[in-house]
Amino acid sequence: MTYNVDGVLPAELVAGFDDGTNLLLSGPAMSGKRDLLLELLARGERDGEGAVVVTSRDPAEEVVREYEDAVGSTPNFVRVIDCVSAQSGSATDGDGVRYVSSPGDLTGMGIEFSEVARSAGGQGVDRLRVGFDSLSPLLMYVDIQRLFRFLHVFTSQIQSQGWLGVFSVDPESHDDQTINTISQLFDGVMEVRVTDGGVREVRVRGVTSTPTPWVEVT
């Protein structure tokens, strides 16, 4: 089976992603990465799939609001793992939101993700799209070796369950070696850029037979 992305990505890029695929969504700040990530997750609503978002940048309420906007209706199943609100003191127990102490609490993220996955199964949701926004703040807290080990386990769980994972990163915030090390863990990379004319373009490599050209994405 595949996770459909029609309506989000042009057909000349890719029509869908195989079960168990993990993607690195790479692009600079202000390139619309999170919008694209949430749109990719929200596309699953039409197919009865659920969504999990790990946020290390913005509070859960903001992410949920943007996700609901992307869906355009009440979501079927969405859970958020919030890594920022506990630090700012704004964490409030809400339906479908779990909190970890900081973007450096990798153990907490792993535990909460396993709990969320279990709750999805308990509600009969066996297909999940998992979004991680973003890996870049984690590298302010932990070294690349720790992050690599964490991501190896996290992506393996997504792969073994046949889910879809999309992990965003800002390549301009890290050196090439760091990005290359992280990239090894993913089946493919989806790159985003904004042209001088303000047009958002995407290309995909690793999950297609050859890297795609840059294609405009609205």
From TrEMBL:
Gene3D superfamilies: P-loop containing nucleotide triphosphate hydrolases
InterPro entries according to UniProt: DUF7504, P-loop_NTPase
Pfam families in the cross-refs: DUF7504
Identification of the protein by name: Recombinase RecA
